[in-house]
Amino acid sequence: MKRQFLFGLFAGLAVASVLRQTSKNALTQSRLDAYYKRRAENYNDTDLQINFFGRWPRLEMRDAAMRLADFKAGDKVLDFACGAGANFPYIMERIGPTGKLVAVDYSPEMLAAAQKVIDKQGWTNVELIQSDAATMQPGTDFDVVFCTLGLIVIPRYEQAMQQAWDALKPGGTYAIADICESDLWYARPIGWILNILDLFIITDSTRHPWEWLAARTQNYWRDSVFFGFFYAAVGKKPTV
Ligand SMILES: C[S@@+](CC[C@H](N)C(=O)[O-])C[C@H]1O[C@@H](n2cnc3c(N)ncnc32)[C@H](O)[C@@H]1O
Description:
Bound molecules: S-adenosylmethionine
Shape: globular
Number of helices: 9
CATH architecture: 3-Layer(aba) Sandwich
Strand order of the largest sheet: 3-2-1-4-5-7-6
Helix content: 40-55%
CATH superfamily: Vaccinia Virus protein VP39
CATH class: Alpha Beta
Distance between the termini: 62 Å
Order of helices and strands: HHHHEHEHEEHEHHEE
Strand content: 15-25%
Structural class: alpha/beta
C-alpha cells in the first residue's frame, strides 16, 4: 500500500512537471493568433460563461482590478492586450468623456470586435492600436496603465510590462489582474488542473507578473480573488 502510494505520488509529480513545461513551450504567438481569431466574435461572452456555483470569477477579478486601478474622470488610460474590449465599459464609465483610452492588442480580429463595442457606445475618445505589446509605442504620460488576462498570454510579457512602465507618468498607477496558481493550502491539490487548462487556452499560469510590479512600485498591493486562482495587483510609479 505504501509502495503504491509512493508510486502514485511520484507519477503524479512527473506528469505535473511535464505538463508545466509543455504548456510553456506551447505558448507561441502563432497559436495565440489562430486561437483569438477563432474566438474574437464571442470572446466577451466568456465572462458570463465561466460560472462556479453561482460565482463568476472573471467578473470578480475585473471588479477587483477596477477598484485597485481607481480610475478618475479625465484619466488617460492604457489597456494593453485589451482583447475585444471587455474592460472598456468599466473604464469609460469611470474616466468619462474627458478621459482618453488607448487600447493595444496583437490580434486584428479581437480589435475588430473591440471596435464594435466602441461604435455601439458611440465613444470618440478611444484609440485602438494593433501591436505586439512587447514593442508597443502607445504614447506617454498615462495616468493609469492596465492589463487583465494578458500577462499569462503575451509571449514576451516582461518586455510588455516594461513598455507600459515607460508610458506611465511618474506617480501614475500600474494595475494588473489575471489567472494564477493558487497558493492557498486547500487549493493546491487541484492546481494541476490549471496546467492542463494552460495547454488548451494557451496560457502560462506559472508566471508571477505581480513580482515584477512589486519590485518597482510604491504602495504595492495585491488582492487574491476566487480562492487564489485570480489576483489583482496595483502599484504607483515613483515620482523620483
Ligand atoms: C485572454 S485575452 C484578454 C483580453 C482582455 N484583456 C480581457 O480582459 O478580456 C488575451 C489577449 O492578449 C492578446 N495578445 C496575445 N499576444 C499579444 C501580444 N504579443 N501583444 C498584445 N496582445 C497580445 C490576444 O490577442 C488577446 O486579445
